[in-house]
Specification:
single chain; about 150 residues; mainly alpha; about 80% helix; elongated
């Protein structure tokens, strides 16, 4: 049941669902639909996203405790409580970023597993009603003029 919610955030972001409660329910339904397409992959992905930080934190804490013990530092537990968050924070930022990318790729994989081409997703993202930033307009103009001049 919990795995059905696994792709709710990518659905809301990529399919531009926002606002009303009915739309949020649509995002939840879509997430359940996508996770049913590839259950084993979703289970494996989210198990790894849960277990990898635990293992990394365990090894980091164990290594720091070993170093403090070998160096025979007084007040070792207090020092460990101060040093561990400093060492763990960069690892946590890195693992969180990787988890976000993996979740987005899982969303794309489950869409492909249902036979939905990625081109439709890209077209929907470009055709959305939200206003485009000025840099996006300039890039489109440059790409279109460069494409015309090279032919």
């Amino acid at each position: 049941m919990m795995l059905g919610f696994a792709l709710t955030v990518p659905v809301v972001m990529m399919e531009n669902i926002s606002g009303l409660d009915a739309l949020r329910l649509a995002a939840l339904r879509r997430s359940f639909q996508l996770t049913r397409r590839s259950k084993r992959t979703v289970v494996a992905t989210f198990s790894l996203q849960f277990l990898v930080p635990i293992v990394v934190a365990g090894f980091t804490g164990g290594f720091l405790a070993l170093v403090i013990k070998v160096l025979k530092i007084q007040n070792g537990p207090d020092l460990l409580n101060l040093v561990f968050p400093l060492v763990w924070l960069p690892a946590q930022i890195l693992l969180g970023s990787i988890a976000s990318v993996i979740t987005a790729l899982l969303y794309l994989k489950t869409r492909q597993a249902g036979g939905e081409p990625i081109r439709t997703l890209l077209r929907d993202m470009e055709d959305s009603d939200r206003p485009h930033a000025q840099w996006q307009r300039r890039m489109r103009e440059r790409l279109s003029t460069n494409a015309r001049s090279t032919r």
